[in-house]
Fold this protein.
Amino acid sequence: MKYNLKKITKKNFRRYGWVIACPCAKPKDKSKSHFCIVRSENAKTGWRIAYLLLREKAVGRMERHPDTFESFEPMSGKSLICVARKKDAADITWFFLDKPVILNKGVWHGLLTRTPESEIKITENAKVGCVYWPLAKALAPK
């Protein structure tokens, strides 16, 4: 059998699903990141897929989600993720975000880009409770 291979585009894939890309207008301020929801299901107990256009070069605050796992899936650019199990700057560990990862519930985390911008796909519960930890000083490893 001969197959007709096609390149995926929003138009030709629409009958089967969605192309994951940032659906929102990019902000003009090149120093600001932008987060938008791509698709969600059942706002009470379901999930959502989001897209993060990351432009921060340092992490000024950490956040955690006590009730949901969260995936970070790099799409473009070079990013770092910092994580900590407890609210203690000495507990922060940095990783190159060069593979998709899933964070456990309640893990403190922050992201930065090493390129002008990075794009990251995020999957999490539809309802996300956030707890923030403002850092005394913005962090960026050398």
Observations:
- The longest helix spans residues 10-13.
- Strands lie at 34-40, 47-54, 59-64, 70-76, 79-84, 93-96, 101-103, 108-113, 118-125, 131-139.
